[in-house]
Specification:
The protein has 274 residues and is α+β, with helices and mostly antiparallel strands. It has 7 helices and 10 strands.
C-alpha cells in the first residue's frame, strides 16, 4: 500500500497496463489516441498533451480503461484543478475528403456560373424593357367624311351615223322647170326653216333614255316600258343615253344605228351628229 502510494501517475498506469497484458499500441487504439500520447501519460510528459484540462481528460480515460479510480490519479497530478473537467476524447467526425476536392469546388463554381449568367442576363433584359417608355398609342384624328366628288363627265365619241347604201337605185327625178322670175316689187319669199332631225327608238325590254339637243335642252328623259317606242325631234347634234341598250333599236332620220359599239356594261352613251 505504501509502495503504491509513492508511485507516480505514469508508473501506476504502466503497471496496470502491463498487468493486464495490454500493449501500448492496443491502448492507443482503444483510447483512440496516438501511441506517443499514451507513452506521454506513462512518462508523465503531460505538457506534450496540450492544455492541463486535456491532459487530465486523457488520464481520466486511460484510468477507466485500466479499471483504476480516475480521481485518485488526478489528485496525484501536479497543478490539478479543484474540479477536474472530464474531457473525453471524442472521435473526430469522419472527414469527407471529396468535399474539399479542388475539382469539386471548380465544378460547383462552373454550375453556379451556368445558372447565374442566364438569370442575370434575363433580369437585365427585363429591366431594359421596363425602363423603356411604352410606345404611345397613335392619335387618331377624326376627319369629316368628304363627299365623293362627282365623276367627271366623259363625253362619248362623236359618231357620224353610217349611211347605209340604198336598197335600190332611186328613179330619176323629174326635171324641174325654172320658176318664173318674181315680179318687180313683189315681197321676197320667207326663208324655209331648217328641218329638225328625228330619232326613233324601239324597246324590247324596259329601258331608261335621255336625249339632249344641240343647246343642251333635255328633249326626252323617261323610263320606257318593254314593247314601247318613241320619236324625238330636235336640232342635232344629240347627246344620247340609252339604258339596257342591248334590248333597244334606233334609227336616225330613217337610218338604223348600231348601239353595240357604244355599250359600256348595259348603258350606251354617244353623240349623233347631223
Amino acid at each position: 500500500m505504501s509502495e503504491n502510494s509513492q508511485a507516480s501517475v505514469g508508473q501506476i498506469l504502466r503497471d496496470a497496463r502491463e498487468a493486464q497484458g495490454i500493449t501500448l499500441e492496443d491502448a492507443a487504439v482503444r483510447l483512440r489516441l496516438m501511441q506517443r500520447q499514451v507513452e506521454a501519460m506513462e512518462t508523465e510528459d503531460f505538457e506534450s498533451l496540450g492544455q492541463p484540462v486535456f491532459a487530465r481528460g486523457f488520464v481520466r480515460n486511460y484510468a477507466r480503461l485500466l479499471g483504476l479510480a480516475p480521481e485518485a490519479l488526478l489528485a496525484r497530478m501536479e497543478g490539478a484543478p479543484a474540479e477536474p473537467a472530464d474531457v473525453s476524447h471524442a472521435e473526430p467526425p469522419p472527414q469527407h475528403a471529396w468535399l474539399t476536392s479542388p475539382w469539386l469546388i471548380l465544378l460547383l463554381l462552373g454550375l453556379l456560373l451556368v445558372i447565374a449568367v442566364p438569370v442575370a442576363l434575363y433580369l437585365w433584359l427585363n429591366s431594359e424593357v421596363d425602363e423603356s417608355p411604352a410606345n404611345p398609342a397613335p392619335v387618331v384624328q377624326s376627319r369629316p367624311v368628304a363627299e365623293p366628288a362627282p365623276a367627271p363627265a366623259v363625253k362619248a365619241p362623236v359618231v357620224t351615223p353610217p349611211v347605209l347604201p340604198p336598197s335600190s337605185v332611186a328613179p330619176d327625178a323629174p326635171a324641174i322647170e325654172p320658176a318664173a322670175p318674181a315680179e318687180a316689187g313683189a315681197p321676197a319669199a320667207a326663208e324655209t326653216p331648217v328641218a329638225s332631225s328625228v330619232v326613233h327608238l324601239e324597246f324590247g325590254a324596259e329601258a331608261w333614255t335621255e336625249i339632249r339637243d344641240a343647246s343642251g335642252r333635255m328633249l326626252h328623259r323617261q323610263l320606257n316600258p318593254a314593247g314601247s317606242s318613241v320619236d324625238i325631234q330636235g336640232k342635232p347634234p344629240f347627246d344620247v343615253v340609252v339604258g339596257n341598250a342591248a334590248q333597244a333599236r334606233m334609227t336616225y332620220n330613217g337610218r338604223p344605228i348600231d348601239l353595240k359599239p357604244f355599250i359600256d356594261v348595259t348603258v350606251a352613251r354617244f353623240t349623233l351628229e347631223e
